Each structure stands twice: as C-alpha cells, then as structure tokens.
Amino acid sequence: MAGELRILGERVATASIGGVPPAERAVLEQAVRASLLCTWIGVQRESWVWPYSRGARAPAARMLAGLFDSLGGIGRLGTLAGAADLDPMDPGPSHTVLPATLAACVAAGVVGPRDDDTVASSVLAGVEAGWRLRRSISSARPGIGFHSAGVYGAIAAAAAAARALRLDGPGCTNAIGIALTRAAGLAINSAASMIGMTHFGWGSAHGLEAALLASEGWDCARRPNFDHPCRLNTDQGWKHASSATCCG
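RE: above sequence
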C-alpha cells in the first residue's frame, strides 16, 4: 500500500481545477456551494443540538465547552452542517465534499488570501483522494462498518488541506496517512443518533489537523495492510476503483 499512498499523494499535490472539463467543474462548484449553504443553515438553525457551547450551565457541558473551537472552529462548523444535512428539507452535500470544502477554506487562509481556483483545486484533490481510498478498501454496503463522513471525510479533508497548504507529494502522502489513523465513526450511528452528526465535524477537524501536522514535518507509516482488487498502484486498480462495478 506504500506505493499506492505515494501515488495518491502526488496526484493530490498536482491536482488542478484548470484541466477539468467545464461540465465537471460546474458539478464540483455546485457541490462546494451546497456545502457552504449547508454550513450556513446549520449555524443558523441547528445550534440547539450543539453540546459544546461556552454558555452551557451543566457541569459536564461546561467541561465540553470549546472542544471544537480550535482549528478555526472547523469541527463545530462540520457538525452543524452535518445536522443540517440530515434535515430532508435541506440540500445535502456528500460526505467527502463537505469536509474537503471546509478544510480547503481554512487551510487556504493559512498560506495567503483565498482564491476560488485554489479552493476548487483543493476540494477536487480531497474528493478524489477520499473516493479512491473508499473504493479501494471498502466492500461494505452503506450502513455497515464505518461511517464515510468520519472516515473518508477525514481523508478528503486532509488531502484538500494539504493541497491548499501547497505541500509536495511526500507531504500530501503524510497528510493522508495521518488522517487514516484519525479516521473513525460507526456507520450505525450515521443517522440514527445525535453523535452521528459529529462525524462530519471530527472528519473535517482530523483531516485539517493531519495536513497541518504534515506541513510541520510529521510523518506516519505508509504501509497499511489493505488487500483489495482496487490496488491503486496499477492501471487495472485505478480503472476498477473508478468504475461503477467497484464497491460503493
């Protein structure tokens, strides 16, 4: 798997929205707008579900207060957006686009003024990384195993933030690898419990953290033991991972 992660890191580092066909770019931009809209709706309407308020009165809630305030508040924003995403009356982005969008926006502000192409290229990198890994290591149907927002959302956020931070290939590889060790969230909690909403927040925060750690020279093991037909270091594996017949 070490070779696959290295290749994926290089793809993330060189991802560019400039070479994307107009129709595909329009889809990506629509997904980014949906993510930001979902975040705004969450902040405006879903704060009642938030247990980490600094104004909380109960002792346990006071201890939790501010837990997601770090890293630009990305964990709070991701969780509230996740709460809005569960509302059938609201538009909902995919479990990779939302974390990638939030991480790209925060990370892009670290290195300089944000511009649309940087954010779009970063989200593109994040979505591709999240989905390639998802299709290469998971054969379970939705609702079984781990929740994609907390697992592959973390990968997408790490790749997006790494691209926005302008890390090189090895740096992007480290960011993805660090995010893999942070990935978490049971699928059974995805929509059946309040804690499932935090998967979006933790995925976003852990991915951003992974990229920031990689930018500071932190590294990780690059040989996780995955065995699946979608081996990403072969042409056949790339083709299978991108196909409709691959595990979803």
